[in-house]
């Protein structure tokens, strides 16, 4: 499993990487380790000569840490010894934290050959952490899909029951990883239980309740309440007026077909800006907010909206 420094193209671990055959059989306790003054030198500094070390600096009072650490542990198990996850509680080991210059947590550092190669702060999404890690360590080949990926695939295939079961188990195993609870709310909503989904979202901590992923599920819930039901949609069939186009777009957004819904809303703006007192534009902005500012659809359709307006 090649480990490279993207700045030079050279192996990150210059002391020949351990073979896959040996690391794949390793006991998880050998590559997920709590570090303190007694073993920091051995695990992080000396250990990184043979295997890269991901140093997770966290604290018990840090809410983002409670989201990030389970992700790092899952990746460590998935990579099965290609790197060691060293977890440092800075509250209990302030001397080490001071020596490392830790000012805020979570703070994750990649150590190899006893040297700092890269780092990031904050609870990044799992996909972004994978991309960051893949710059240095090749992901396991033909790795089975993660439970979260299986749940997302089930939702995409319309199997809300399977997605709900997977997210229910993940939420029970990792109660402080709130993305799993948001995923569960999404699956529950897809199964048709809007009241239960709303309750789950309302009970999230404020910083997660207002996050982009939760807003997306809540928007689907609210759009579902506003959108026409199947009987009303059937009555609109064959109509191409502004009202029909707008309501069909609402239904598409409510069902999670964001691109089709955005296209429909933009069409209403182009053809009948006055409809519903500029309802299409206002709804476009609500969808952007639900998806998040960095979502590709938000970026693309915000640009088209700007061009249409100005």
TrEMBL record:
GO function terms (MF aspect): protein-disulfide reductase activity
Signal peptide positions on this chain: none
Compositional bias ranges of the Polar residues kind: 10-27
Limits of the Thioredoxin domain: 21-138
Assigned GO CC terms: cytoplasm
Residue ranges of the region described as Disordered: 1-27
GO BP annotations, alphabetical order: response to stress
Keywords assigned: Disulfide bond, Electron transport, Redox-active center, Transport
Pfam families according to UniProt: Thioredoxin, TPR_19, TPR_20
PANTHER family membership: GEO12009P1
Name of protein: Putative thioredoxin
Source organism of the structure: Modicisalibacter ilicicola DSM 19980
